[in-house]
Design goal:
The protein has 140 residues and is an all-alpha fold. It is built from 3 helices and no strands. This is Interferon induced transmembrane protein 3.
Length: 140
């Protein structure tokens, strides 16, 4: 089954020309759809996280270093250098992660030391009370 078209109508590029229709009778205008390049999301600079790491958990100055790299990443992003901004931003992210993990470790260590110290003091006082050498009367 062959489709026929009226002369002067443009055919899509994938259809062959119908018999009796030549190129002179075809429309000369061509519409080429131009799509803008895909919009690339700007890389993250992790500035807020770095600021919190600097103010609240500056272990070994890692929070301050993360803040420096975050500011560099923001500067690169403003200049349009997305590869540099991505590099500085990822460095800031890894410094923030390291600072966070060290802080968690130190908090757990401090809690463990306080708990073991409290248990040791309670056992010592209980042992002295059992011996009767120095009776413990408690607060008065």
């Amino acid at each position: 089954m062959e489709r026929t078209r009226a002369p002067g109508l443009a055919l899509p590029p994938y259809e062959p020309l119908v018999e009796g229709l030549d190129m002179e009778n075809m429309s000369r205008s061509v519409v080429v759809p131009v799509e803008p390049p895909p919009v690339q999301a700007p890389p993250r600079d992790h500035l807020a996280w770095s600021l919190c790491s600097t103010l609240y958990s500056n272990v070994c100055c890692l929070g301050f270093l993360a803040l420096v790299f975050s500011v560099k990443s923001r500067d690169r992003k403003v200049l349009g250098d997305y590869s540099g901004a991505l590099s500085y931003g990822s460095t800031a992210k890894y410094l923030n992660i390291t600072a966070l993990l060290l802080n968690i470790f130190f908090i757990i260590l401090i809690i463990a030391l306080i708990a073991s110290g409290t248990i040791t003091v309670v056992n010592l006082l209980h042992h002295q009370q059992q011996q009767g050498d120095h009776p413990f009367y408690g607060p008065t």
